[in-house]
Design goal:
about 425 residues; Aspartate Aminotransferase, domain 1; 7-stranded mixed beta sheet; 4-stranded antiparallel beta sheet; aminotransferase
Amino acid sequence: TFLSHSLQAKMSRPVQARRLERIDKNIWVEFVKLAATYSKVNLGQGFPDFPAPGFLTEALTRALSGGNHMLHQYTRAFGHPPLVKVLAQFFEKLLGRDLDPMTNVMVAVGAYQALFCCFQALVDEGDEVIIIEPFFDCYEPMVKMAGGTPVFVPLRPNPPKDGKLMSSADWQLDPAELASKFSEQTKAIVLNSPNNPLGKVFSREELGLIAELCVKHDVLCISDEVYEWLVYDGKQHIRIASLQGMWDRTVIIGSAGKTFSATGWKVGWAVGPDRLMQHLRTVHQNSVYHCATIAQEAVAQGFQRELMLYGKPESYFVQLPKELQQKRDWLVQSLDDVGMKPIIPEGTYFLVADISQFKSDVPDVPNSDEPYDYRFTKWMVKNKGLAAIPLSAFYSKAHKNNYTNFIRFCFAKEDATLKAANDILQKWKQEKTS
């Protein structure tokens, strides 16, 4: 018995690392499962259900079946040479500066791993990292895993007075509030423009304000720009690294998944000055080390094509936003028609809608501390077969309860999918009015 007691005593101490405490819950696990179980139409998760462009899949087929058998082996750990080379050429154009493909560009397993490398490489115990709300939900746990402290500052909605629909541009930072978050402990700010979930594209003035504070307080900027090509209504995506004093302190994060509508390929990258990139390479070589060679080869060929067609009407980067803008407008119309007030996004493939008029549809759960948007989204998928994501999932605990009247839809879908969503909404509207 002594032996069994001593074995039990040994097993009772916590096994998980402290840095995993309170970050084990993940909205996607729960809502992806719900959508898979109940949804007829899934506008929840952010991926297109239409095919990747033909030129990209053809490039993959060529790489796979072509004569170069070395494409089935390891390539350079920090990025396949043809890919880092063409990314450097592309970003030279976009940023107006010379880049070294070997030191200024690193390829990662999707933008997600590029972000993880940033936080692990640049954030230390006790460092503060400013996160603008609403934010893509991995920023907060990634900061905490690196030992940092997230500091939140919300975009505040200013509804237009004329009864017009709100735009994502109506959600703004309060300059004084933002400035008050910078302190001696601030190591970095995370910027996501175009922003997921709102679709906000930060203006030159807003970026100028952030840049000024970064320079003044000597703070780094982690700039998540995965939706850089998905900008609408003639708006322009401005890269904060191109503003004065910012190249030296910014890491840009990008994604082939979002750029070429191939999210399952998991090819992403980080671009920045070597003084920052060298530390990302250290994390990368000691975690993932290497990304799929064949996918990198195909993405490189996709970029070579786009470099030749840059700015021309037949460029995929010109065509895709045009198509998505039509889909966006269609969903806006669809939601507005049934009384969900859409916030018109300037970019990304997400759209947030106000669901306050639907409170009477969703039964109250006594003693539940679950926010209304969570209850609404679960009720909608189970009873109507339409999946979306609650907006308060993109907020910190402190601000969550102020934003429970909104849900997020993804409109990067086949027309048939959007039509099916519209049919569900129309039927719902008839049931409400009859």
